[in-house]
UniProtKB/TrEMBL annotation:
Named cofactor requirement(s): FAD
Keywords tagged on the record: FAD, Flavoprotein, Monooxygenase, Oxidoreductase
Domain FAD-binding stretches: 7-339
GO molecular function, one term: oxidoreductase activity, acting on paired donors, with incorporation or reduction of molecular oxygen, NAD(P)H as one donor, and incorporation of one atom of oxygen
Protein's recorded name: Monooxygenase
The species this protein was found in: Actinoplanes siamensis
Length: 505
């Protein structure tokens, strides 16, 4: 930090998965971070229940995935609106969803954040925001009748669907209202005779009972055309009553650990950035939680934003780099809202929807349909609008096996430090020469590919490139095809766009 009046380079509101991941990304890149959280501490509520392939990959890119694999359980199938969806082992080293409760995800990310030096302030609710040319002042309500103001260069709202940061910044949150209510809870069901109930359809909705831990079930009771009040309390008795209406019994339900509610309301922030204030995760988008995409999209927001924001606050890149956060992530959010609206419609009760589900289920037997749908859920097919016509440009880089002078490695190991990496795969010296003005901001790696072809989920196999510039988030900023001459102006343009202007060696 440069000035005595700044408490942190970045203040993050919200200590959930998105805020924690963002804080870690910022710390890896050298930014000073303070997380403020309105809650007094962890609630232990399980909430979201899994992570998809792309989220597993970004954790692998940082070298911490083993912590999550050690306590999670990989599942070989997923679903689209309750219809089973198959995954393809060729698309990723981590092709299957990992079943792991949000409480465990938060615990592991918080441990990593502490290791990296992230600071926390609990029981601190954002109550006011004031921006100026040099930073943002954040007013925090820390106790009854007590307030504190912290000063930062930037503020990021990761504070959920009812985000105080979004509201105080005047950012619109347009979308579609709820048409149904779902109650969810972790309970005991001593009279349930089945080990697992998945989307049992009923005349007014559907219910599921998923055994996450021995003796405990996650019960989800969804009723259509019943919309709860926004501030209506959620109780165990409401969950019991809803299950009785749907299933005709509560299966002896007892011992609730946690009860909550969700709906199919879908809204997205009109802009992800307003000056020195940015939004990520549920603060930027809410939707029907079909396919478990919410937590994953929030973590991926954080990985897209983190390196950019760190580069700006540490002076390595111009502020204009932050505009690409909205231009890249807002369309991704739009697509997720679109597919979750479709899944909500496909889940509605009634004979017409039953017929539609039968037809849709038959279509999902097609490999092409399966691939298209799992690409939506896993985010492996996300492509950002970067310059260049190479098939990898803008896409997430495959985790190809490589050989270097130091020994065997793979692409994702090169990204552990969260720095841009410029890889040459056939000893082209002019690549390094073209990047000379960015030597302080990019890692240069000379390697050979173990495979002649790399697999890209929505393209199948493509020839291994001759060279590529990989952003810290694992997306390709520039690539050259093997056998083609190196386009030095295009490489230098990509370096300038994503790393800032060249400097004298």
């Amino acid at each position: 930090m440069e000035s005595s009046g700044v408490d942190a380079d970045v203040v993050i509101a919200g200590a959930g998965p998105t805020g924690l991941m963002l804080a870690c990304e910022l710390r890896l890149a050298g930014a000073d971070v303070l997380i403020v959280e309105r809650l007094a501490g962890r609630t232990g509520e399980s909430r979201a229940g899994g992570m998809h392939s792309r989220t597993l990959e970004v954790l692998d890119q940082r070298g911490i995935l083993d912590r999550f694999l050690a306590i999670g359980d990989a599942q070989p199938v997923g679903h689209f609106s309750g219809l089973y969806l198959e995954f393809d082992e060729s698309e990723s080293r981590h092709p299957y969803p990992l079943m792991i409760l949000q409480a465990d995800i938060e615990r592991l990310l918080e441990e990593w954040a502490v290791e990296l030096g992230v600071r926390f302030q609990w029981s601190a609710e954002v109550t006011g925001i004031a921006q100026d040319d040099s930073g943002v002042s954040v007013e925090l309500g820390t106790a009854p009748a007590a307030t504190r103001t912290v000063r930062a260069r930037y503020l990021v709202g990761c504070d959920g669907g009812r985000s105080a940061v979004r509201k105080l910044s005047g950012i619109d949150f347009p979308g579609t209202p709820a048409t149904m209510t779902a109650l969810i809870g972790d309970v005991e069901l001593p009279e349930l005779t089945e080990d697992y109930v998945w989307v049992r359809r009923c005349p007014t909705g559907d219910w599921s009972a998923i055994a996450f831990e021995p003796g405990w079930y996650r019960v989800i009771a969804s009723e259509y055309d019943r919309v709860a009040g926004r501030d209506e309390p959620v109780t165990f008795e409401q969950l019991r009553a809803s299950l009785i209406r749907l299933a005709g019994t509560d299966f002896g339900m007892t011992g609730p650990r946690w009860v909550s509610r969700f709906s199919d309301a879908a809204r997205q922030a009109a802009q992800y950035r307003a000056g020195r204030v940015l939004l990520a995760g549920d603060a930027a988008h809410i939707h029907f939680p079909a396919g478990g995409q919410g937590l994953n999209m929030g973590v991926q927001d954080a990985v897209n934003l983190g390196w950019k924001l760190a580069a700006v606050v540490t002076g390595r890149a111009p502020e204009s780099l932050l505009d690409t956060y909205h231009s890249e992530r807002h369309p991704v959010g739009e697509q997720v809202l679109h597919n979750t609206r479709a899944q909500s419609a496909l889940a509605r009760p009634g004979p017409h929807t039953d017929a539609l589900r039968d037809v849709f289920s038959t279509l999902m037997e097609s490999d092409d349909v399966n691939r298209r749908l799992r690409g939506m859920l896993t985010a492996l097919t996300v492509r950002y609008p970067v310059d260049g016509d190479h098939p990898l440009a803008g896409r997430r880089v495959p985790d190809a096996d490589l050989k270097t002078a130091e020994g065997d490695t793979c692409v994702y190991e090169l990204l552990h430090a969260a720095r841009p990496v410029l890889v040459t795969l056939n000893g082209i010296t002019e690549v390094a020469a073209a990047a000379d003005g960015w030597a302080d901001r990019v890692e240069l790696v000379d390697a050979t590919s173990e495979d002649d072809y790399w697999f890209v989920p929505d393209l199948d196999e493509i020839p291994a490139p001759a060279a590529l510039l990989i952003r810290p988030d694992g997306h390709v900023a520039w690539a050259a095809a093997d056998g083609d001459p190196i386009d030095r102006p295009a490489l230098r343009a990509a370096l300038t766009t994503w790393l800032g202007p060249a400097r004298q060696p």
